[in-house]
Design goal:
The protein is an alpha+beta fold. The protein has 4 helices and 11 strands. The protein is 25% helix and 24% strand. The relative contact order is 0.24.
């Protein structure tokens, strides 16, 4: 069994993971991860389901961000979250009113088992967000800072600045670019043929699902939620085309 998203298998996230694994920023300490927008009713022809239970920004976009973070740092220890329905009524492009039934703005902290502690904000209630939407994840370490591309995409720029660098510099892609959605399915097919584990594993999807729900549970119960899923990072992608994996 496997599960989307498979965007973490693209050159953007894989290059960032390689930089981290090689110790380029020293020991990772903290991160920020943002996905902030005014809401999907501004462009989607049928946005109702985004505002029903099981929707909202965390369950819509959270899988991309959390999958990337799990690939960077490994399993999560605990989550603290606050969630609210900031804009209770929305108007669609054709003038219908949506009564929002699930939190449309969520913020919280994630503590990983390796000690990394960071902040995540997922919002359908913010206009003109003041962060780099091309690199919405920033990772801070003892020896530098890494700017990570949009985890909803396969490719994207990775920038690194170490302690004595004058500025950030672009890290060339360490893996093939140009992959698209369903690369995870292709990887599964190659894995079955070669009798190796595939990368978009069910355990990863469950860990992401448990984490997403934990933000809402933490907000409802007003305390931190310890996670119980068993998760090990999949192997990184090899620096060669997918059809030469095995």
């Amino acid at each position: 069994m496997g599960c989307a998203p498979d965007t973490f298998m693209g050159a953007g996230i894989q290059t960032a993971r390689k930089v981290l694994d090689e110790g380029a920023i020293g020991r990772p300490l903290t991160f920020t991860a943002f996905m902030m927008c005014p809401g999907h009713e501004h462009w989607h022809p049928n946005p109702q389901f985004f505002y029903e239970p099981g929707g909202g920004p965390m369950f819509d976009m959270g899988p991309y961000y959390l999958t990337a973070l799990l690939n960077f740092f490994g399993p999560i220890r605990r989550i603290t979250g606050s969630a609210t329905i900031a804009i209770p009524h929305r108007t669609t492009l054709d003038g219908r009113t949506i009564n929002v039934q699930t939190p449309d703005h969520i913020s919280g902290s994630i503590e990983f088992e390796n000690g990394v502690l960071g902040t995540i904000v997922m919002s359908f209630a913010t206009r003109f967000p003041q962060y780099d939407t091309q690199q919405p994840i920033t990772i801070y370490g003892t020896d530098g800072t890494l700017k990570v591309p949009d985890p909803n995409m396969f490719d994207g720029p990775v920038h690194l600045r170490r302690t004595f660098d004058a500025d950030f510099h672009l890290i060339p892609p360490a893996f093939p670019t140009g992959y698209g959605r369903s690369v995870g399915l292709a990887d599964m097919a190659y894995a079955l043929r070669a009798a190796r584990p595939h990368r978009a594993i069910a355990e990863q999807a469950y860990a992401v699902l448990e984490a997403m729900q934990a933000f809402l549970d933490s907000s409802d119960r007003a305390y931190a939620i310890d996670l119980n899923s068993h998760y090990q990072r999949p192997q990184p992608m090899p620096p060669k085309p997918l059809w030469l994996l095995d």
